[in-house]
Amino acid sequence: MFSKLFAESGLSLDRLKALLAVAAAGSIVKATAGDPVRQSQYSRQIKELEDFFRIKLVERHGKGIRLTQNGKELARISRFFLLGLSNFQRGCLSEEQTFRIGASATFIREFLVPMVSDPKVLQSHTRYIVETASDDVIERRLHDLTLDFGVITQTEISRPLQLKQLGKWRLKLWVPRALHKSEKSAETALKEKRLPLVLAGQELEACGVHFFNDHEPRVICDNFLEALAAMETKGLASILPDFLIPDAPGNAFFQMRVPALESRVIHYRLAWNPRLLRLNPHTIRSRDFLIGSLRLH
């Protein structure tokens, strides 16, 4: 069945490993940390793979190189194969399982970090690595098998990736009383676009919220955690998930009713690649554990 594959030299685990390193880093220079000896080695190994398969795996891009479509496909196949070998080796050696999870900064702090810090999880034979990533990056990396799981807000995902809903939430507009004493006063300022806002640009974009873009916010940051910190200085109002509450004494902030916000329901969903489940049966147990532990009530 595989006689043709091994009829000539040029294919090896080391060469495939070099291709994966370049694919992950984006260039030979980055993959080798600038080491000229390893650069020469990686270049030679990728050239040997090209000669073996008789296709181009890399191409010039600006001052560097990037993988061709064939290079990306070979990297995907190689990653799948090497992950299977690595999981088999861990099982033989009874080593702990490691899973990478991508999510927004807010979800990581509010839900993932408390989960992975739980004593029961720490005492298990499972290790979690959490990484901040946007929905589109999570989707791409699940396909590439460089992430095991992702938590996203988008409603659909490309095949063969699968989704399971974890919970739903809404956005709330918080106003410091140092800015406005009453909701009526804040509502007037909002209508007249005088209410100073701090907005979590990237995470609001992921939620599909665009109707405050024309208010010219005073501060735009990446995530809800940064927006919360800015709002707690009491000089800015902010739009936050209903599970994020300002850490302030007494009545320092109030929630303002905004029908356009309250009508929107946003979901967190766990995403994974079913191919990974076939590679590593432990992934099924980890997926089910994550769904149970991260479900928002």
Features:
5-stranded mixed sheet, D-Maltodextrin-Binding Protein, domain 2, elongated, single chain, 297 residues, 12 strands, alpha/beta, Arc Repressor Mutant, subunit A, 3 domains
Verbal overview:
The protein is an alpha/beta fold. It folds into three domains: 13-79, Arc Repressor Mutant, subunit A; 96-168 and 267-294, D-Maltodextrin-Binding Protein, domain 2 (3-Layer(aba) Sandwich), CATH 3.40.190; 171-263, 3-Layer(aba) Sandwich (D-Maltodextrin-Binding Protein, domain 2), CATH 3.40.190.10. 44% of the residues lie in helices and 21% in strands. The protein contains 13 helices and twelve strands. It has helices spanning 13-25, 28-31, 36-53, 69-93, 105-116, 119-122, 135-144, 183-191, 201-206, 224-231, 259-262, 274-279, 282-294, and strands at residues 58-61, 64-67, 97-103, 126-132, 149-152, 162-169, 171-176, 197-200, 219-221, 237-241, 253-256, 266-272. The strands form three sheets. A five-stranded mixed β-sheet has the order 4-3-5-12-6, sandwiched between helices. A five-stranded mixed β-sheet has the order 9-8-10-7-11, with helices on both faces. Strands 1-2 form a two-stranded antiparallel sheet. Helix 1 (13-25) packs across helix 3 (36-53) and helix 1 (13-25) packs across helix 4. The longest helix is centred in the N-terminal third of the chain and has 25 residues, at 69-93. The protein is elongated. The relative contact order is 0.13. The model has no long low-confidence stretch (mean pLDDT 90).
